[in-house]
Design goal:
By secondary structure, the chain is α/β, with parallel strands linked by helices. Helices cover 30% and strands 28% of the residues. The strands form three sheets. Strands 5-6-7-3-8-9 form a six-stranded mixed beta sheet, with helices on both faces. A four-stranded antiparallel beta sheet has the order 11-12-10-13, covered by helices on one side. The structure holds adenosine-5'-triphosphate (ATP). Adenosine-5'-triphosphate (ATP) binds next to strand 1, strand 2 and helix 1. Its main location: membrane.
């Protein structure tokens, strides 16, 4: 059974924009425009898109913070807004820019309060906290008030707070934003470990594609509120024709650029002493074997296709083609809001 099911999910915001010195006009912003998303239990899904694509808005609808303007959504079989309290017991949420911890309390006390709020049995709470303490190295700052923690320490606290009640789904909105490389690595390792056990479904939005590469087999890309890719990272590379590169350093440049079947020359550097070939249908081994018959190779490396490149190409496609989505079911509520940028309807 899918733990997340969304069909024709839509969120329109009505905003007022200046249209002259005194006049304001209403304009509808379709932040999410018919998103269809199904996530199986235990899956780790990367949900990415350029700024303003509609990622946070989707997450807010999935977690019951925002009422959809149209569409059907079920998380853990529940309707997020109507059954928000029940849903809160079954999901965990980490919004990188916001905190769910008590600012003036030491982390340890925040965790204790959460145990009472979620009515977690003492033994379960202790076991989960023990695991987080060891995997996230919490001990050195457990007794420090949250306001005095560094961003990386706080984020480790946020992750723990989101997991202490044993959620089935963890929603993470930019969990590594602003973290240094060491904290990023700690958070990624922790999430990878969480994914390995397969008990928690993970939906992650991030601008750091290394998070996605490390954690997610499946990638959903949205742009202008619509899904433009849903599949593996490899499928995305295939779609944009990005390939592994074989890069060779030569002692001396060749008089003519070599023509290799199935591996066109991709780049030439260092006055022809460094050549890169794209492995379209040839394997890296075949490319190296052919080249070594043509020249003395000083050095050889194989470079995996760069996810940043392919995603940048996807984002800069002028009119991304949305994947076909089934027609949305009838709108459950007639909902129109006028809100400030950070308002919640
Ligand atoms: N409360 C709101 N009122 C009006 N417009 C909103 C509101 N929230 C979001 N929007 C608009 O909806 C669109 C999608 O915003 P959203 O925050 O979901 O994007 P995002 O993909 O999370 O972006 P980012 O990567 O920059 O965080 C944007 O055009 C944004 O300005």
């Amino acid at each position: 059974m899918n733990i997340i099911e969304a069909h024709g999910l839509r969120k329109d915001f009505v905003v007022r924009v200046r249209a002259g010195r005194l006049r304001r006009e209403k304009r509808v912003v379709s932040a999410v425009d018919g998103v269809g998303l199904t996530v199986a239990r235990g899956e780790m899904l990367g949900y990415i898109g350029p700024n303003g694509a509609g990622k946070s808005t989707t997450l807010k609808m999935l977690t019951g913070v925002l009422m959809p303007s149209a569409g059907e959504v079920r998380v853990c079989g529940l309707r997020p807004v109507a059954q928000r309290t029940r849903l809160a017991m079954r999901i965990g949420v980490v919004f990188g820019q916001r905190s769910q911890l008590w600012w003036d309390l030491p982390l340890r006390d925040s965790f204790d309060l959460l145990r009472h709020i979620y009515r977690v049995p003492t033994a379960d709470h202790a076991a989960r906290l023990r695991r987080c303490r060891s995997l996230l190295d919490l001990d050195e700052f457990l007794d420090i008030p949250v306001r005095q923690l560094s961003l990386g320490q706080r984020m480790r606290g946020e992750l723990t707070a989101a997991l202490l009640h044993g959620p089935e789904v963890l929603f993470l909105d930019e969990p590594t934003i602003g973290l240094d490389v060491v904290s990023k690595r700690a958070v990624r390792e922790f999430l990878a470990e969480l994914g390995r056990t397969g008990d928690t479904t993970l939906l992650l939005t991030t601008h750091d594609l290394a998070d996605i590469e490390r954690l997610c087999r499946r990638l959903v890309v949205i742009d202008h509120g619509r899904v433009v890719h849903d599949g593996s990272i490899e499928a995305l590379h295939a779609r944009y024709g990005s390939h592994r590169l074989v890069v060779v350093d030569l002692d001396e440049p060749l008089p003519e650029p070599p023509v290799l079947p199935g591996a066109p020359l991709y780049r030439t550097e260092s006055d022809g002493r460094r050549l890169a070939f794209a492995c379209e249908s040839a394997t890296a081994g075949e490319v190296v074997a052919r080249l070594s018959g043509l020249a003395a190779l000083r050095d050889v490396s194989v470079v995996e296709p760069d996810i940043e490149d392919v995603v940048a190409r996807l984002y800069t496609t002028p009119t991304p083609t949305a994947l076909p989505t089934p027609p949305p079911p009838p709108c459950p509520v007639d909902h129109e809001v006028v809100v400030a940028r950070d308002g919640v309807s």
